Amino acid sequence: MITEDLSEPEIALWKAYPAARPVNLSGSPVRATVIARLLLGALDDLPGQTPGLRLSGARITGRLDLSYAEVHHPLNLTDCDFEEAPVLTGARTGLVRLAACRLPGLLAGNAVIGGGLRLEGCRLDGPLQLGGAHVNGVIELSGTAIHAHPAVDAAGLIIDRDLLCANAVLDGESHLAGARISGTMILDGTQVGSSDGRSLTADGIVIDGGLSCGRGFRSYGELSVQDARVGRKCAFSGARLSNPSGIALNAERLSVEGGLHIDEGFTAEGEVLLRGARVTGQLSLAHATLVHPGGRALNGPLMEIGSGLRATPGFVADGVVFLDSTQVRGSLNLDGGRLSNPEATALSLRRLGVTGRFSCGEGFRADGEIVLIDAKVEGIMEFHGAVLSNPGARVLSLWEVSVGGGVDCCEGFTAQGGVSIRDSQIAGALCFAHATIDGDLQVRRVQAAALKIGPETALLGAVDLRNTRVGVLDDVPGRWPARLQLNGFTYDNLEHVLPVQERLDWLAKEDYLPQPYEQLATVYRRHGHDEAARDVLLEGQRRRRAGQRLAARLWSYLQDWTVGYGYRPLRAALWLAALLLIGTLVFATDHPPAFKPGEAPPFNAFLYTLDLLLPVISFGQENAFGPHGTQQWLAATMIAAGWLLATTILAGLTRAFSRR
């Protein structure tokens, strides 16, 4: 053994190495070359002993350079100060443990570290370089602080077990792109990044056992895990991410074989990007706060979620929640959420697919428009109790939506702005009971099982129901607003068959069109109320004449007074009876002379009057006797009245039968 050039602390270390005895030097210097000589086999192994370097409290001078070396025994240093950054580039080593040490950095690119790399509670003033390294155990960085740019450079790193980095400080960007971790990656309580640039770049990383950036985790700059694959659970619960002018979390095309938890106090200043992410479990956003005013707070189009999206309770987004073309197996629940993007879109759900229910109820609030276009929801769609605000514009747009249940805008639903539902299929009821809509309500070309307007409904704008079809109309006519469009609106039944006058007042809210009257009459007939149906059709004719020219209007009045457009046959019979009585009395008192006295039949005043009144039927009296004087005027009046009565009766009956 050659020890002449060794200092006393180095001699103590030299003697302790063969049996791996611990040495505490209390701040004494040790040359890095001495440590390297020991690790590279300067001493022979002692029988029955396992060599190893267990040093604490030393000040290590010079550079510990083990690049491309093979180190068969553990390196275990505690509370040591390194003058220069150790170099393990390309080395093959056993366990490397540096606890509470201070280093200018650590260079271990392409190294193969067999027993794990443990840097617990260390301080590094230079980068930790592990690019292309392969660690056959755990990497432990818990409690370590690295102040460098970059802080960690570990692209392509392979870890056979876990990466544990809890309560650490990585002051600078860290690179883990393309890394492969067979166990879990724990960053709970860790601070990564600085005020500019990216905080952590782990694009394409594969983590088989799960990722946890949990409570106390802080990120400054963009945290990127795009194209990453995470087995089991991926959790950002309680994390705080800050990149106000850009992307706070970039998880584009992230794949998680379990649940993705961005919840429980999670806060992001900047965009959360989940475009194309695939989550086989649940995506949870409960108690999350996303802040990106004027931009996309949650940018998650083209996602595939295997077990529901839950953002209740306490989800808050300042900016657009953008989930176009996202497919959710299970339910999408935003109950109690608060979205804000004033005068623009707050929630965009174009081409959304949900196999369960869709819910924005129970205290849900949105300042801005909610848009669902070409969406399919197999369960119920709920907005009950929601408060939506977008004054002067649309607040809710459901266009080309297919809903397997009902659309529930009941029980305190409030909209300050227009509600537009168009070209949609609703298997259940479209309900606005106990709703307040301070804006226009448009329900056009919609098919629904029922439409509900309750006694507590307040519709403060215009309502457009054109070309909509419902099975049951369950409403209170008096709750409809003054501006109403009903042309093409059809319904199979009325839930409450109300007095016909209330329904006529309902129809009178719109400028006259024939279809709404015919539709209401059809439903009354279906309920067995033929008299009410006739009243409806009669009122329709009366409203129709308001837009006619004078001659047509006079003719219309005549039809109304005489036979009620054919819907009042008793009135026609009374007119005929009255004229028949008058004629019979007059002609019986002073019957007209015969044209041919010797050939005329016996005069009958009753039959003579009938001959005058009935334009087609003849009893032989009118052709045999000729009136004279004032009787001529009476006879002419009878003939004219008969033709008028016959014409109006025929026209009315034709119209009535054609509607049947």
Number of strands: 61
Helix content: 10-25%
Query: Hey, roughly how much beta strand do the residues contain?
Result: 25-35%
Based on CA atoms alone, the radius of gyration comes out at 45 Å
Estimate the global geometry from the Cα principal axes.
Answer: rod-shaped
Name the structural class: alpha/beta
Give the overall pLDDT as a whole number: 90
Q: Terminal Cα separation, in Å? A: 120 Å
Uncertain spans, ≥5 residues at pLDDT below 50? none
Helices, by number, come to 9
Biggest sheet record: 35 strands, parallel
Keywords: Membrane, Transmembrane, Transmembrane helix
Transmembrane segments: 572-589, 601-621, 633-653
Organism: Nonomuraea salmonea
Protein name: Oxidoreductase
Structure summary:
The chain is 19% helix and 35% strand. The protein is α/β, with parallel strands linked by helices and 660 residues long. Among the domains are: 1-183; 194-329; 563-659.
Could you explain the architecture of this structure?
By secondary structure, the protein is α/β, with parallel strands linked by helices. Among the domains are: 1-183; 194-329; 563-659. It is 19% helix and 35% strand. It has nine helices and 61 strands. The chain has a 35-stranded parallel sheet that branches. Helix 4 (514-526) packs antiparallel against helix 5, helix 6 crosses helix 9 and helix 7 packs antiparallel against helix 9. The longest helix has 30 residues, at 630-659. The model has no long low-confidence stretch (mean pLDDT 90).
